[in-house]
Write a structure and sequence with these properties.
The protein is built from 4 helices and 24 strands. Helix content is 36%, strand content 33%. It is an alpha+beta fold and 428 residues long.
């Protein structure tokens, strides 16, 4: 009898312990099952993306404008002052490598020496040729005068002799005329030769003067006062010391207008249809977490692009900052919340409370008295945190954020087709 009582007591103790453990576990489970109430109010559909500040307008600090004319298609920045340096108009900014241009200057100096020598040689040659032509013309004139004298002295000679002397005089006159004509041709030839030599000399001299002028532009100064910001290449990399400057775009750096700033960001292709020009943007600054700005979508790119180290296509968005703030600097990182749409007086719940069965049914786990029920819902627009509920729930109803255990086999309480149709029609 005593042993039986001990057995009964032990059984009761075991039952109490099992009940206690079960309640503790249930309590732990319940503590993990967080519920929220369905809210009614204003819903904002937002697209969030990080961006980088740029000046809307800036003055370009240009390199030599004659690089292409000098046949220097690209050069290197030998030295440039630190980014962010405040400069005055005329202050030194950078120096470009002149090694290629220096070679061209030396070559053109050699060309100028050759053309100078050729000009001097042409001058001597033409002087000698003209002197020779004048001597020949003088000889012909002397011969003609001689034949005149012979003819005069032969007036008493027989007619045949007189005729012969007359013919000799005529030949002398013709030779003198040809000599005069040849001399004029020699003068024209000499002029043309000297003009060609002079033109080559002038060309080489002008080219050398131009190259020397361009070389003076390889030391870059600020066109006006401002804060120097490095130029970026097509990859977005800053062009600093050692960077390349192209002849077709000899921009070395920029002087931005810090009173009008723009945030450049890239939106994923799945969100681009919700972003439009003129939408309001809430802007935060990583450098100043407590500072909040506003902006407006200025431009939306028509064409997508592939960003480095990314498989997704993105579209470039420009957001103009409404406020003018002296703390804003180009290159600062921004967080941009684009308000794509605002819907008033709607029901919405956290996205964590939405579950799905297959591809067609979405549901929530709704508290139903002491129990739970899987309730089908029809959803509308969503943002990063919340989603609109078009049908299936009412304001104030409590739903579970997680999908509690033990409901795997519970059937979903479906909405009738009329309610679904009406909800989708209101959404459209």
């Amino acid at each position: 009898m005593k042993r039986r009582n001990i057995t009964i007591v032990a059984g009761i103790l075991v039952a109490v312990i099992i009940f206690f453990i079960t309640q503790v576990n249930n309590g732990a489970t319940d503590s993990r099952e967080v519920t929220v109430e369905v809210q009614r109010g204003i819903f904002k559909s937002e697209v969030t993306a990080s961006g980088e500040l740029f000046a809307k307008k800036s003055v370009k600090i240009m390199g030599p404008d004659g690089m292409r004319q000098a046949n220097v298609w690209e050069t290197t920045i030998s030295h440039i002052i630190d980014e962010g340096t405040v400069v005055k108009q005329g202050d030194y900014v950078a120096r470009l490598d002149q090694s290629e241009l220096g070679q061209k200057i030396e070559q053109k100096k050699n060309d100028l020496k050759i053309s100078s020598a050729e000009f001097a040689e042409a001058k001597l040659d033409t002087a000698m040729e003209l002197r020779k032509a004048r001597d020949e013309m003088d000889n012909m004139l002397y011969e003609m005068e001689k034949q005149k004298l012979v003819l005069t002295n032969s007036e008493f000679e027989p007619p045949a002799v007189v005729k012969e002397k007359t013919m000799d005089l005529n030949r002398a006159k013709k030779k003198h005329t040809r000599a005069e004509e040849n001399y004029m041709l020699q003068v024209d030839k000499a002029k043309a030769k000297m003009q060609a030599a002079q033109a080559k000399l002038d060309e080489d001299q002008n080219r050398l003067d131009f190259l020397i002028k361009v070389s003076g532009q390889f030391t870059i100064t600020a066109p006006e006062a401002g804060m120097l910001i490095y130029k970026r290449d097509w990859r977005g990399n800053k062009i600093a010391q050692g960077g390349r400057v192209a002849g077709w775009d000899p921009t070395v750096a920029t002087l931005p207008d810090l009173t009008r700033m723009v945030s450049k960001t890239f939106i994923n292709e799945v969100d681009i249809n919700t972003v439009q020009q003129g939408q309001i943007v809430d802007i935060g600054l990583d450098a100043f977490p407590d500072k909040h700005l506003t902006g407006t979508v200025l431009e939306v790119a028509n064409m997508g692009q592939q960003r480095p180290n990314s498989d997704a296509k993105v579209f470039e968005i420009l957001i103009e900052i409404n406020e003018s703030d002296t703390t804003l600097r180009p290159g600062m990182t921004t967080s941009n919340n684009i308000v794509a749409n605002v819907v008033e007086d709607v029901l919405f719940v956290p996205v964590e409370g939405i579950h799905s069965q297959g591809d067609s049914i979405t549901y929530v786990v709704q508290r139903d008295g002491a129990g739970m029920v899987k309730q089908e819902v029809i959803l509308g627009q969503s943002n990063a945190d919340e989603v609109i509920v078009l049908a299936g729930l009412s304001e104030g109803v409590a739903i579970y954020l997680s999908d509690p255990e033990g409901l795997e086999n519970q059937r979903i309480k479906l909405l009738n087709n009329d309610i679904k149709t009406q909800a989708l029609a209101r959404n459209n």
